[in-house]
């Protein structure tokens, strides 16, 4: 029998879960519920069963959600269905798997009938039914997982499970859990005061995740973004966040990679570790890169959805404790489910049972109905594993989804209530002897997806970092860029999604804005009158820090010259500054002037700007220029005329001999 306190807690949990499920089902479908068909399909209407609390003790009633989904283009009339319960526990994992798949054939007894209302085309409905202990008939029956089923004509039947939780002297299965709590930071890489308070105050997502993990004795992973945000806020930090960090900072806690960025993707990209370069803060120098790191234990690396090879497994094991899935192992299990501690090619790992890990993922789904079904299947699987050899203790391992990927509070409460399960920390699983195992070699078409995103992000960051010399403290700019990058990288513990690709593309846009943050403001055509005038150019600095740049100006013809073609400019934060570039006007006409910004070490900033300048010198300058041109032309003409005469032999000068001239002018005829 349950103690009064435990029974009260389970009743409260069950009522709360029922309220959530009912509210979700009664309200219009939104993103948190399964996607509803928008067009009719060939699928038949289907039933789904979701126990509110899958654990039953002597004298306890079962509260059951019965859902009918109609994906067809025709309405379904009101229907009466019969709910069945197997007459004996499902004794093997194989039998349980077949039951989950709707293939189990077991003797069953009717325990209730449920009237479902008519359902319109493409609609769904839900009905809650309470089945009392007498109708269930489980009092005095053997403990373990019992199959639930429901069917009706012309529709797909539904199956689920409940567990009679009276294990007696059976040794409980120990489940070693890792509970990563991530911050879900945006592109800034930090949480503001309002976000911190919302997450860490009583009832907040981070507060509930931490308390549930502590109650389960799970090994807790903490995103350094929590502590970094607290330090960056200084005196503006909410008290709830400080208290939360004190509670989370246990000796056996471990730090997640910042923003829960995927360690495996970084290793595959050959870029591990991509760490913060500093924690930026307003009006002050960045904080050290390790600011906010909590916990001294080596990290737990969630590889339960990855297909690992021996070389990278060795690399990851040097970083932390690797938890992979048994689906990644080449082994055949007979007789019983083994403990998680394994040795693969001399590398010690924890092998999470693939089915347990999958049910745990389902049990933390954001949809209330899917999560309820997942919790039922998880505890049924653990009960069946315990029944394999009741006197043979074993320690399994699993990794809970990160906080932003699903709430683990409800499933941890159910596990805490189960008499055949004991939740412990990761180190408990490592204390048992390791079994020898071998990696399988399945194909993984998405193997390099995460690494490609890491490489793309780092390439874009490097391009943007080339302009960092425009600020006096490059770290103030680069540290913010790095946090943006870490927030965009794929999250650990889940496959790469389209949202990750979009985030990296958005990262390119963000970094592109940094490269364009200091730029020349385009203006109208300019009229330059005079011998030496100032060419007005406006330069904008959209950064929150002062910037130092070099402005270069050059003309495209000789009507204008620039005595000082490169000017160094210091721009205040978030301002525009008009610069007068001296130019000398030497002719009348139109000239195109090209202006370009550079970093102090010569890296171009933004795009060059072309300005149209109408040049007109003053009258004195014009006369001087005209006279100079005339003199040059006369000299050139004289030289040309002399050269021409010499070539014809008509040139005369003082150097000519007088006799020669006379002979040429009066030649003497010879006579015989």
Q: Can you walk me through this structure?
A:
33% of the residues lie in helices and 26% in strands. The protein has a 5-stranded mixed β-sheet with strand order 2-8-7-4-5. α4 packs across α7 and α14 (449-465) runs antiparallel to α15 (474-488). The protein contains 18 helices and 29 strands. With 672 residues, it is an alpha/beta fold. The model is unreliable at 1-37 (pLDDT under 50).
Shape: elongated
SS class: alpha/beta
Radius of gyration, CA atoms, in whole angstroms = 40 Å
Low-confidence stretches: 1-37
For the largest beta sheet, what order do the strands appear in spatially? 2-8-7-4-5
Total helical elements? 18
Please state roughly what percent of the residues sit in beta strands, choosing from under 5%, 5-15%, 15-25%, 25-35%, 35-45% or over 45%.
25-35%
Helix content: 25-40%
Q: Kindly report how far apart the N and C termini lie.
A: 164 Å
Chain-averaged pLDDT: 86
Q: Please outline the major beta sheet.
A: 5 strands, mixed
Total strand segments: 29
């Amino acid at each position: 029998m349950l103690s009064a306190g435990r029974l009260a807690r389970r009743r409260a949990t069950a009522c709360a879960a029922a309220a959530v499920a009912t509210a979700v089902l009664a309200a219009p479908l939104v993103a948190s519920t399964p996607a509803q068909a928008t067009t009719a399909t060939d699928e038949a209407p289907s039933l789904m069963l979701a126990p509110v609390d899958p654990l039953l003790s002597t004298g306890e009633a079962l509260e059951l959600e019965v859902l009918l989904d109609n994906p067809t283009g025709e309405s379904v009339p009101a229907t009466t269905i019969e709910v069945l319960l197997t007459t004996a526990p499902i004794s093997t994992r194989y039998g349980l798997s077949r039951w989950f798949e709707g293939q189990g054939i077991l003797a069953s007894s009717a325990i209730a009938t449920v009237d479902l209302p008519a359902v319109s085309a493409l609609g769904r409905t839900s009905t809650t039914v309470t089945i009392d202990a007498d109708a269930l008939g489980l009092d005095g029956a053997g403990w373990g997982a019992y199959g639930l089923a429901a069917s009706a004509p012309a529709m797909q039947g539904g199956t689920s499970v409940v567990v009679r939780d009276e294990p007696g002297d059976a040794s409980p299965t120990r489940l070693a859990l890792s509970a990563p709590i991530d911050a879900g930071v945006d592109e800034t890489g930090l949480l503001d005061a309002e976000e911190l308070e919302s997450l860490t105050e009583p009832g907040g997502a981070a507060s509930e995740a931490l308390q549930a993990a502590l109650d389960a004795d799970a090994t807790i992973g903490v995103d350094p973004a929590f502590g970094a945000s607290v330090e960056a806020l200084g005196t503006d930090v909410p008290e709830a966040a400080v208290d939360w960090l004190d509670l989370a900072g246990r000796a056996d806690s471990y730090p997640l990679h910042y923003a829960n960025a995927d360690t495996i993707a970084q290793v595959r990209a050959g870029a591990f570790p991509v760490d913060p370069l500093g924690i930026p803060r307003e009006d002050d120098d960045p904080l050290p890169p390790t600011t906010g790191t909590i916990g001294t234990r080596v990290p737990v690396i969630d590889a339960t959805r990855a297909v690992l090879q021996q070389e990278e497994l060795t690399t990851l094991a040097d970083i932390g404790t690797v938890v992979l899935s048994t689906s990644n192992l080449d082994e055949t299990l007979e007789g019983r489910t083994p403990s998680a501690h394994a040795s693969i090619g001399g590398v010690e790992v924890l092998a999470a049972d693939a089915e347990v890990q999958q049910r745990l993922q389902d049990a933390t789904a954001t949809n209330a109905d899917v999560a309820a079904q997942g919790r039922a299947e998880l505890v049924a699987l653990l009960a069946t594993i315990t029944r394999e050899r009741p006197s043979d203790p074993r320690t399994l391992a699993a990794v809970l989804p990160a906080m932003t990927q699903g709430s683990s509070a409800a499933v941890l409460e159910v596990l805490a209530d189960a008499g055949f399960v004991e939740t412990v920390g990761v180190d408990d699983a490592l204390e048992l002897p390791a079994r020898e195992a071998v990696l399988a070699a399945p194909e993984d078409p998405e193997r390099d997806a995460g690494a490609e995103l890491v490489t793309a992000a780092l390439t874009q960051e490097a391009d943007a970092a080339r302009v960092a010399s425009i600020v006096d403290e490059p770290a103030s700019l680069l540290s913010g860029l790095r946090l943006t990058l870490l927030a965009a990288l794929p999250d650990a513990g889940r496959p790469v999604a389209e949202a990750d690709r979009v985030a990296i593309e958005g990262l390119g846009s963000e970094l592109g804005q940094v490269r364009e943050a200091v730029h020349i403001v385009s203006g109208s055509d300019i009229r330059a009158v005079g011998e030496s005038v100032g060419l007005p150019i406006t330069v904008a600095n959209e950064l929150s820090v002062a910037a130092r740049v070099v402005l270069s100006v050059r003309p495209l013809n000789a009507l204008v010259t620039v005595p000082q073609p490169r000017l160094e400019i210091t721009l205040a934060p978030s301002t525009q500054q008009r610069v007068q570039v001296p130019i000398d006007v030497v002719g009348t006409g139109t000239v195109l002037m090209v202006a370009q910004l550079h970093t102090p070490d010569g890296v171009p900033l933004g795009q060059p700007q072309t300005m149209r300048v109408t040049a007109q010198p003053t009258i004195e300058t014009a006369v001087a220029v005209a006279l100079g041109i005339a003199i040059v032309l006369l000299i050139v003409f004289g030289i040309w005329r002399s050269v021409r005469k010499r070539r014809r032999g008509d040139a005369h000068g003082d150097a000519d001999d007088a006799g020669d001239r006379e002979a040429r002018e009066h030649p003497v005829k010879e006579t015989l």
